[in-house]
Design a protein that fits this description.
Blueprint lengths: L2 H27 L14 H6 L4 H19 L4 H21 L5 H18 L5 H4 L16 H20 L4 H28 L1
Helix pairs in contact: 1-3, 1-5, 3-4, 4-5, 7-8
Length: about 200
């Protein structure tokens, strides 16, 4: 497969998985679940509260936002895809425990997509599996800067701020969330500008 097409394919999977889980988490925590997302259920926290597990439901939602954001912005897709494994595992256990019929199959499909990202970055796991590994990576990676990391982090913080805003003004909250996404995507441009100056 052509290198450019391969990269575009992995980026597309990352964005899709990121949107899936980021949107799911935001919808669970937004006021009256007014956030777009295709996977649910948005009422998971309320359902888990019946078993005194409401805080666990909130933890899942916050984790979905964070891990999904790592993937949707594509800046940290490798870390996000590694963290996605226990997230999907936790969600799978909840759905099996509550005897939801179709959800495990959807999660299996999403897990398969996530494994494609991990396979793409398989050479990064060599030092983890073999601590004495001294080989050089052949992969060309984009350099990142501290300022770029900070800009990306500001975008993430705006997502959590938008949740609080949603309980007062839903359109301002949506705008804040969208602005955060743009800011985090802009972090790549910040990297390029910073590296040019060196």
């Amino acid at each position: 497969m052509n290198l450019k097409i391969k990269k575009l394919f992995i980026q597309s999977i990352s964005i899709f998985l990121g949107f899936t889980f980021f949107g799911a988490g935001m919808a669970k925590l937004y006021f009256e679940h007014h956030y777009f997302g295709w996977i649910g259920p948005t009422w998971l926290i309320e359902r888990l509260e019946e078993y005194q597990l409401g805080f666990y439901g909130q933890f899942i939602a916050v984790s979905q936002i964070f891990i999904g954001y790592l993937l949707i912005t594509t800046r940290y897709k490798l870390i996000g895809s590694i963290m996605m494994i226990p997230l999907i595992g936790n969600t799978l256990m909840v759905t099996i425990s509550m005897q939801w019929k179709g959800t495990p199959f959807v999660l299996a499909f999403l897990l398969g997509l996530n494994l494609l990202i991990l396979w793409h970055y398989r050479d990064f796991f060599k030092p983890l599996l073999n601590e004495s590994f001294e080989g050089n990576f052949k992969r060309i990676v984009n350099k990142k800067t501290n300022l770029g990391h900070l800009v990306w982090l500001c975008g993430l913080v705006l997502q959590y701020i938008s949740i609080a805003i949603s309980y007062h003004q839903i359109y301002v909250a949506m705008g804040t969330s969208f602005l955060g996404l743009l800011l985090s995507i802009f972090s790549f441009r910040v990297d390029k500008n910073q590296l040019k100056m060196k």
